[in-house]
Amino acid sequence: MRILAMHSGHDGAIAFIEDGVLRFSIEAEKDSFPRYSAVRAQLLMDALEAADSFPDVVAMGGWHKRAGGLRPGLGAGYMGLDAPQVHEGTLFGRPVRYFHDTHERSHIYMSTGMAPQAPLDECAILTWEGVIGSFYHWRRGGAELDAFPVLDQPGQRYAALFALANPGFPDRGTPDHTQAGKLMALAGYADLDTPVPHDVARVVDTLLEAPRIDPLEKVSFKDCPLYNVGVHTPLVHRAAAYIGDRLFEIYLEAAKARLPAGLPLMISGGCGLNCEWNRRWEQCGHFSEVFVPPCTNDSGCAIGTALDAQFVLGGERRLEWDVYAGPEFIPDIEPGADWERAPLDYDALADDIAAGAVVAWVQGRAEIGPRALGHRSLLASPLGAEMKDVLNRIKHREDYRPIAPACLLEELPQWFDSGREDPYMLYFANVTTDALPAITHVDGTARVQSVGPSGDPRYRALLQAQSRRTGYGVLCNTSLNHKGLGFINRTSDLLFYCDRRRIDHAVIEDAWYRRVQRPAG
Q: How far is CA 118 from the centre of its chain?
């Protein structure tokens, strides 16, 4: 069975599954398009070209209409667990089946179908994102599915705190998708030994108790101590940690009240990108294990819709997939005379990285999901504290944002308090050495990607060379992208980026490009 599936909302994507194997998932923001983009005509053309056979099923995930308060949704709509809509039709004159599921279902089936233990007979599912905030009890292989709504709009409530403190946010509006991640970074600055001021706790509780939070009526908080106080302040740091604690407590209490202990937990939705919450779910003791897909936000919903279609139409309740199922890199131009090409020499490159070089690193197909995992990455040495500021300047990011590391799996217990394999960079670990300041957040944590023997061979070879050169098989790893745009995916954009950001080293597959140093004048 061949299924072409689309997610049409923000973080738009088109996925193609053939006989239970993910052939590709192409996301609308990749190739330097605006972050959180919806599906566009060019993306559809790219997907049609990438699909090497005609689909049996064309599937679309549901969404909502925003204009004029219209009630009907797009396709099957945003919410709901009812049976999907299926009908016979034609595509270019050939018979196909058309399939529509809800956005809610796409999250559920993405997390269960991508799980390494799939097919799952029984599990718990948590879907928490900007709108949905529910647990589900999956039984009998999904034949029975009970929903337990907990608190809607958890992601929007979390981001609203950042908007409340941000003087640049209007008195009424919807927080954008970047603000939750920024608040997570700021929470690391909190002095947890300081009690939460009563008036701050009251503001947070009001945000969590409001029936709806989108749009945020910021002006109604005008007299509170957090209103336009500035985001990078001790008061906001403490409030950020507090709202994170309270949200997690609300959901953990609901899990203990409504779900049997000892089930595996599948997590989907944008809140699954909160590495601190993921670590807490692992450590809470109520679940036997935790799985978070690398595309847990809406970028994975096209895959989820395809899996829903596969299950409903008689296929397996599992998916064979690889995290590098994004688009192929496009060599649209040849580097000019300003660049010299040499074969990739891992030890020589490790020497340059140790001396302070930043490397634009491109390998194979792009990652699915929002994390750069060594195929579209900026790599640098973690051994000097100044490299965090260098990379944040290159990325045009706030100086309080942390830089993530990649680490050889076998070295993980030496430098971090976790030996767990985390190839998708979805959990926090504590850094146990002071030798890696560039990747150590102010609270001593890092969102570390483990790179084991089954990882990308060139990426792993460079980490091994770094270990031979410095004693630490660790590199700074941040995404290769312009501010506000998705991963770079063609040579012309890559070289433009290197020119604008003063990056002198670029690696594409096994070719190492170094900028030619010309004499002044």
A: 22
